[in-house]
Amino acid sequence: MLTLVVNPDHPEPRKIAHAAEVLEDGGVALYPTDTVYALGCAFDARRSVERLYRLKQMDERRPLAMICADLSDIARYAVVSDFAYRQMRRILPGPYTVVLPATREVPRLLLDKRRTIGIRVPASPICATLVRALGRPLLTTSAVPPGAERACIDTDEGKEAWPRGLDLVIDGGPTAGEPSTVVSLLDDQIEILREGLGAIEGVLV
């Protein structure tokens, strides 16, 4: 297990490049977002995706989300209407997961029955630089240990929960400790699917 201590505000390029190499080789990482710590891998690494489900002991029918570096990346993986784009411009980057119709660029393994995908653009320099270095999105899920009710807020909790099975730990210090707010923008309607760190008032305007 490789541990990299990374500056959360100014991630060191050499360390981020090293982290991206681990993910490129099919690694699974524990890393910080703007909400909680997450488990992630390259979104098109099928075996790594299966490892994520096993680590969390999670039903494979439960969809995972994708992390993009910025708003401009989202249209490649999701169908973005003018309405959806206007909403996302107000809340992203930030502590929100936005649910949109998926494009054919999204592997079938990641889709639910409605062929939708949850996408995050965290307000996290570590996430943004890591995704850019990797050259494609991260598949992500909150680092909630099996049987626990909340996600890990630091790397000590993550290493204790998963002493084996992780290839990379990115230590960016403690996180906020509350998950993202999940917002559906399907059919040009705003629906709050989960209340989290992102203010509801920021969405329902």
Describe this structure in words.
With 205 residues, this protein is an alpha/beta fold. It has one domain: DHBP synthase (Alpha-Beta Complex), CATH 3.90.870.10. The chain has helices at 13-24, 46-56, 71-77, 82-91, 125-134, 155-161, and strands spanning 2-5, 29-32, 37-42, 65-67, 96-101, 116-120, 138-142, 168-171, 181-184, 191-194. The N and C termini lie far apart (45 Å).
Features:
205 residues, alpha/beta, DHBP synthase, 22% strand, globular
Short description:
The chain has 205 residues and is α/β, with parallel strands linked by helices.
The whole-number mean of residue pLDDT values reads: 93
Q: What order do the SSEs take from the amino end to the carboxyl end, as H and E?
A: EHEEHEHHEEHEHEEE
Q: What CATH architecture do you see?
A: Alpha-Beta Complex
CATH H-level name... which superfamily? DHBP synthase
Continuous helix count: 6
Number of strands: 10
At the first level of CATH, the class is Alpha Beta
Which stretches of 5+ consecutive residues score pLDDT under 50? Answer: none
